[in-house]
UniProtKB/TrEMBL annotation, chains A, B:
GO MF annotation: an example: metallodipeptidase activity
Alphabetical list of Gene3D superfamilies matching this protein: 3.30.70.360, Zn peptidases (3.40.630.10)
BP GO terms, sorted: proteolysis; regulation of protein metabolic process
Site (Important for catalytic activity): 232
Name this protein carries in UniProt: Carnosine dipeptidase 1
GO cellular component: cytosol
Cofactors named for this entry: Mn(2+)
Native organism taxonomy: Eukaryota, Metazoa, Chordata, Craniata, Vertebrata
Domain Peptidase M20 dimerisation: 214-367
Family: Belongs to the peptidase M20A family.
Record-listed Mn(2+) 2 binding positions: 105, 138, 199
Length: 491, 491
């Protein structure tokens, strides 16, 4: 395949993609309509239905599809809930071609119209070039962009062997996935050369990026309980140790007004900041004002680009998410809740160890609680622990992705990390020991996990092109590496 | 009417009540089945339907009934919601008889099966002599006991003129009632001699009580907002001032682990504890262990009966109820909520002034917030302010009630206060300047505002008898006072 024929093929593919925009958007609309929320137990059947749609889509592509049953898991209340299957797909087995494995998820975060959505979260709605809907950018849009890129490409000529790992429990901790990867490591993954994950967004609204690291996520539940039932604040206010007062004090001990975590020892294992790493931050194009505008926040904790990026990527953070069991509705209820569960999480960074973090949190909270002399019961647990991830930006995989981006978007990508967690990146890298790249196509203002989540039509369609172009680049790169190594053998 | 004929009449009435137990319980079952929750806007139509049932019931009794339209009120979100009418009823106009006005409410606190109810909260269910259901004791049971006592009595001989004030907004601050009382003070209330309220419970499970005071209720909303939308804790955790972290710190500044309120100046106007008042507490029969058992709590903040009663009646308390806008469901959501509203209330006591309390709370919270240097927006409001109430235990009204209790239950009542708020007691006393009594028939373990609210069959039926007996006693007392005053005039 000469350079010019490759370029003609690429032109042909790009034209095909432009011509099929409305089909691609129709696909996304159909997927967004499925309330595949993996967090709320009641919606589990919708996640399972979503997996069937994915399997059908891949089968229609010509792929062999294996829906791997992962059994069930137990909720904190003891209820057994079935896990959705993980879809393993395979298309093409030409030993001349590189094998690229794509990972994506089709479950979503909870979303309700009344949370503040301007449109129905499960009806994909285009407004001013943006496609609004839960899962549009996290992660249904990118998954479909990849599948459509494969389809487009395939209609012309297959230069890459494809594998697919599509799951439905990412937003609930990817339960069962790690075990499956371990089991399939010697089988499904044995001939995989490269692993691509597209489950995050760019750092800016306009400039593409490639991601080489992510923070972890250690989620904690702090439960305080006084007795069997909620009490009336008139009948018991002033004479009991109220569980919610205890919990508020515990939560207030976690982080100071500057965002500094107050748990003793928590910063001890954070990787030292090298001069090389600091320089990497300096060269990144990052519009602080734009990021602030995207957030809706008036003022950040730090004033410079470097400080902001360091605190999103290099340092851990702690966020309090809410309280279960207390009064949460509009209006007034003069209740003393009997059992309350505070929820917070720590985004850990290299080289914080999860079990050490858990121990530090438990010891700290138990210490604060014991100083209160409360007769209530305290229970601290870590229902979810996801590790941070870091890749080598000099890997050939990153080069191919960089070239594809340059071709489609006309500029080099930033090399960035992600402040949020993609535990699968670390998981894939640790288990398979293959090269892993995080290859986002969504923009910074897409609002993953938030109200009014969207992907722009531009990013969705150009993202499809970038993936297609990436197939050509990785194919060329692979062929070149292959030829070089053959020559070396001959020599 | 001689003492012996009064006693015969009483026996006849008691027999009638015993013979109609199942009818009375059927009535209560019908009322409990109406989800007349005045707190949740969606259920307002059920409150209004409940008021129609009350009007019908009083009309069937032969009373003239006036359903007074109070217009509407505005919710914090701007929505206009109709207020339920207040029912004014009147039965008997004999100038020889005293006129007793009864106040009660038929709205209820929120209740859902999944909050931890063993039975459906809106299906009255008898288990081991207890009638479980939302509103069974607060306040549908006592209202029906009074109405049934009137009916019983009336079937025989009317010795008292009755008036009724029944409302449907008590659990949401009795909106509109105060204005109505002021308007009707010269009309409906002009010939009222005594006002009876039965909207609280005894201090023990077994020993009857009469109540001469109640704490107030100043409810506060503390709102902290950062911007337009919820944010992802990975993308923004560590670089913004999180509103929930600010709110947790504000709530944590309110009360210390010993239950002492930390708001400067808040105890300044609390009435000094006199030796006389202290003695009153000493003579009350109060089983600390039983009260603890009712609460389900392992340990109280204080160890003696006197300290406990002082902190329920004489001193203010502060309880935190919950947070609106944060994640409150089971499971995990790694969200940074953009707008959170903390809810707490202060049970004030004589002679704390509501506007002073409000100012102290606002100044304190603004001070704590400003020291955090947060760019977020703080808003403190007091959506509900109910004043405390105190009556004279030497009033003749208390004597009649005491005699009725002695007759039906065979022992003298305790003279107690209520740690919770009955703003209507203070309101009726301040506006009408008539004698007001709080005359409970429910027991300490009834669980008002809590899961598994109940009234025992015994208390419901014997309470009906106590009310009937009270009619005879107040009639005798009134006749005696009248004769005495006539004699005084003749002299």
């Amino acid at each position: 395949m000469s350079s010019s024929s490759s370029s003609e093929l690429e032109m042909e593919i790009f034209q095909y993609i432009d011509g099929h925009q409305s089909d691609f958007i129709k696909d996304l609309k159909e997927w967004v309509a499925v309330q595949s929320d993996s967090v709320q137990p009641d919606l589990r059947k919708e996640v399972i239905r979503m997996m069937v749609l994915v399997a059908d889509r891949l089968a229609a592509l010509g792929a062999t599809v294996n829906s791997v049953n992962l059994g069930s898991h137990q909720l904190p209340n003891g209820q057994d809930l079935p896990l959705p299957p993980v879809i393993l797909g395979e298309l093409g087995r030409d030993p001349q071609n590189p094998t690229v494995c794509f990972y994506g998820h089709v479950d979503v975060q909870p979303a309700k119209k009344e949370d503040g959505w301007k449109t129905d979260p499960y009806t994909l709605t285009e407004i001013n070039g943006n496609l609004y809907g839960r899962g549009a950018t996290d992660n249904k849009g990118p998954v479909l962009a990849w599948i459509n890129a494969v389809e487009t490409f395939r209609a012309l000529k297959l230069v890459v062997n494809f594998k697919f790992v599509i799951e439905g429990m990412e937003e609930a901790g990817s339960l069962g996935l790690e075990k499956l990867l371990e089991e399939e490591n010697q089988c499904f993954f044995s001939d995989v050369d490269y692993i691509v994950i597209s489950d995050n967004v760019w750092l800016s609204n306009k400039k593409p990026a490639l991601t080489y690291g992510s923070r972890g996520n250690a989620c904690f539940f702090v439960e305080v309980e006084c007795g069997g039932k909620d009490l009336h604040s008139g009948t018991f206010g002033g004479i009991i140790h109220e569980p919610l007062t205890d919990l508020i004090a515990l939560l207030d001990s976690l982080v100071d007004p500057t965002g500094h975590i107050q748990i003793p020892g928590i910063y001890d294992s954070v990787a030292a900041l090298t001069e090389e790493e600091r320089k990497l931050y300096e060269s990144i194009e990052f519009d602080l004002e734009e990021h602030k505008k995207n957030s809706g926040v008036k003022k950040f904790l730090y004033g410079t680009k470097e400080e902001i990026l360091l605190h999103l990527w290099h340092y851990p953070s702690l966020s309090i998410h809410g309280i279960e069991g207390a009064f949460h509705e509009p209006g007034i209820k003069t209740v003393i809740p009997s059992k309350v569960i505070g929820k917070f999480s720590i985004r850990q960074v290299p080289h914080m160890d999860l079990s050490v973090v858990k121990q530090q949190v438990v010891e700290h909270l138990e210490g604060v609680f014991s100083r209160r002399n409360s007769p209530n019961k305290l229970k601290v647990s870590m229902p979810l622990g996801a590790k941070p991830w870091l890749a080598d930006v000099n890997d050939p995989l990153y080069k191919a992705a960089r070239r594809a981006i340059k071709k489609v978007f006309g500029e080099d990508p930033d090399f960035i990390r992600d402040g949020s967690t993609v535990p699968v990146a670390r998981m894939f890298q640790t288990i398979t020991r293959k090269s892993v790249i995080m290859f986002p196509i969504g923009a910074a203002d897409d609002g993953e996990h938030s109200q009014n989540e969207k992907i722009s039509r531009h990013n969705y369609i150009e993202g499809t092109k970038v993936f297609a172009s990436f197939f050509l680049e990785i194919s060329k790169l692979h062929r070149h590496l292959h030829e070089t190594s053959n020559m070396e053998i001959k020599n």
